[in-house]
Amino acid sequence: MNHYTVRPNKDADEWFVKMEDVASESSYDKIDEAIRQAEIVASDNRPAKLIIYNHLQEIVDEKTFK
After folding, report:
1. What is the mean pLDDT of residues 30-50?
2. Are 37 and 28 contacting, i.e. CB atoms less than 8 angstroms apart?
3. How confident is the model over 44-62, as a mean pLDDT?
4. What is the pTM of this model?
5. Structural domain boundaries of the chain?
6. CA–CA distance, 36 with 30 (Å, rounded to integer)
7. What would the pLDDT profile of 2-26 be if each residue is shown by its tens digit?
8. Residues 6+ apart with CB under 8 A from 17
9. Cα distances (angstroms) measured from residue 42 to each of 10, 12, 13, 28, 37
């Protein structure tokens, strides 16, 4: 299963979509844009799990794509 995350940078003014929480796929100015793109990537690479973090680095949502 592929694992993807949406995480902010340290100032929470940029959001990263990462594969396996290591390699940055892309970055976005807004969390909504990052989530939308991460959902597309995860859906295209099923099976996949997407974990979304807030500006405090806390998990706020998890989605599984089968």
Report:
1. 97
2. yes
3. 97
4. 0.92
5. 2-65
6. 10
7. 999 999 999 999 999 999 978 777 9
8. 4, 5, 6, 24, 25, 26, 27, 28, 34, 37, 38, 41
9. 24, 22, 23, 17, 9
Written as six digits, the tokens of 19 are: 């594969």
Single-letter amino acid, residue 50: L
DSSP per-residue codes, the chain: -EEEEEEE-TTSSSEEEEETTTEEEEEESSHHHHHHHHHHHHHHT-SEEEEEE-TTS-EEEEEEE-
Residue 45 corresponds to which amino acid?
A: N
Cα–Cα distance, 26 to 31 (Å, whole number): 12
CA-to-CA separations, 16 to 20, 66, in angstroms, rounded:
12, 23
